[in-house]
Specification:
With about 100 residues, the protein is of the alpha+beta class. The protein has a single domain, classed as Winged helix-like DNA-binding domain superfamily/Winged helix DNA-binding domain (Arc Repressor Mutant, subunit A, Orthogonal Bundle). Helices cover about 60% and strands about 15% of the residues. Strands 1-3-2 form a three-stranded antiparallel β-sheet. The chain is elongated, with a radius of gyration of 16 Å.
Length: about 100
């Protein structure tokens, strides 16, 4: 098995919490902080840390607003984030194909 594809995996996305966030955002145009936190069963601090890492990488955008006089934080994939996620998934698929036994 060629180890090269493993070395190409995006380490920002590869961490399981960030992969979960990216996966959820890939399937939805945007999600609130609360929706992400509840769906992924993360603490506020843990989710905040992962969101910050993804935002610093340019993979997600974070919008802060107010709804009914309450703060609302929403997250969405950026174009760069969608491209990085698509590339990451394609690379995983290639690794899986390489690992399948030849019939």
């Amino acid at each position: 098995m060629n180890p090269e594809p493993f070395l190409q995996l995006d380490r920002v996305i590869h961490e399981k919490g960030r992969l979960a966030i990216m996966s959820m955002l890939a399937a939805n145009p945007e999600l609130s902080f609360t929706e992400l936190r509840d769906a992924l069963a993360m603490t506020d601090g843990n989710l905040t840390s992962h969101i910050r890492t993804l935002q610093e990488a340019g993979y997600i955008s974070v919008t802060k607003s107010f709804e009914k006089n309450r703060p609302l934080t929403t997250c969405a994939l950026t174009a760069a984030g969608r491209k990085a996620f698509t590339g990451y998934i394609s690379l995983l698929e290639a690794i899986v194909q390489q690992a399948k036994p030849k019939s």
